Amino acid sequence: MSVSRNRASRHSRRGFTLMEVLLVLAILAVIMALVVPQYMNVQRQSSVDATKVSIKGLEQALKTYAVGHDGELPTTDNIDVLITDPGNDKKWNGPYLDDDTTLPRDAWGNPLQYEYPGPNHPNGLKADIWSWGPDKQNGTEDDINNWTVEVD
Length: 152
Description:
This protein has about 150 residues and is mostly helical.
């Protein structure tokens, strides 16, 4: 009799019960509910910070360009002079950006927007630089720019 009881107890413990599986899934769901939002906030803030750095880098390139061009900046349509020699500019001493193949992009892969002369005139630069932000739409509250956001 003890042999059959031993065999039966070995048989009943081969797998997990439905209740045990559901309990583990519930615990995992609670952990994920706590961790994922924190991760998403960190990821979003990292993207915003990276975009601010890109804006600051473009500002510095524009200032360097302006030094050699009597304080003038490239027009909105002519921003490519920061990376490409126009051929008819004897004062051009570029490329003015570290990556001399493309203009800076935001953390979401979109090109930074540039307007000169800009209507907001931040930091005496007289040029507006902005990103459409994570929603990739212009003029929304998540836009990152150089006239309302402190770009360190």
